[in-house]
Amino acid sequence: MAKSEARLRALKMRRRGKSIGWIAKRLGVSKGSTSIWCRDVVLTQRQQDRLIKDRIDAGHRGRIIGAEANKRKRLQNIETQEKIARGMIGSITSRDTLMLGIALYLGEGTKSDGSTLAITNSDAETILLARNWFEQLGVTRDMFRPQVLISESHRDRWSTVLKFWSRYLGIPKDQFANPVFLQGRPKKVYENHNSYYGVLALRVRKGKTLKYRILALIQACKRNAGVAQWQ
């Protein structure tokens, strides 16, 4: 296309309220040349407002596209890391389970003298792991005395919360201690209100000797890892 023809077409498009970038792309010329050709064209206020709106809309679309691209990238990364993790872990032995439970108790278990043997967490899978680990150490199902700690705002859902934990852990409802309803109503309502089941303390009755053994296992792990000595 000859420059003179391109210039005439650019002027025509500009008078219709098209942006410099849009015109340059349509004609296949530089934005600099387009800007020079159209510098004497005065846009109406309506045309200017339209261009501003178009830029805002384009920016919004760009943000959406960017967000979707980032989401896909994140999901692909997660999937890749999960595959790597499965390959690194492989099959789990009973000793692996023992060590995993020791680490869990180190982070979430009771340790003070006189406290009841227990692991406390809000994640149901973590609590199930704790139950299985306790059973590996010889705890029978009837020795569990779970207790739920949950906000007062969930009092009307208590039967639902109790049913969830009882079924998930396979522990009869009558073995659960009375719940602890935490005072102070939240200032905002969360979207997961009806799917939240509080924090569960998985306590073990008559577990004093076992607690001493677990604490000894933790100490042994620390010592063999070179971070502690026998007291």
The global form is elongated
Q: Strand percentage, roughly?
A: 5-15%
Architecture per CATH nomenclature, i.e. the level-2 architecture of the domain at 94-224: 2-Layer Sandwich
Helix content: 55-70%
Uncertain stretches:
none
Query: From the helix content, strand content and strand pairing, which structural class follows?
Result: alpha+beta
Number of E strands: 4
| CATH fold call of the domain at 94-224 | 60s Ribosomal Protein L30, Chain: A
Radius of gyration, in angstroms, nearest whole number: 33 Å
Span between termini = 89 Å
Largest beta sheet, briefly? 4 strands, mixed
Task: Give the class-level CATH name of the domain at 94-224.
Answer: Alpha Beta
So how many helices? 8
- What order do the helices and strands follow? HHHHHEHEHEEH
- Biggest sheet strand order reads 1-4-2-3
On the 0 to 100 scale, the average pLDDT is: 91
Descriptive account of the structure:
The protein is α+β, with helices and mostly antiparallel strands and 231 residues long. The chain has a domain at 94-224: 60s Ribosomal Protein L30, Chain: A, CATH 3.30.1330. It has helices at residues 3-15, 20-27, 31-37, 45-89, 94-108, 124-136, 158-169, 208-224; strands at 117-121, 147-151, 180-182, 199-204. Strand 2, helix 7 (158-169) and strand 3 form a beta-alpha-beta unit. Helix 2 (20-27) crosses helix 3, helix 5 (94-108) packs across helix 6 (124-136) and helix 5 (94-108) packs across helix 8 (208-224). The radius of gyration is 33 Å and the shape is elongated. 17% of the residues are buried.
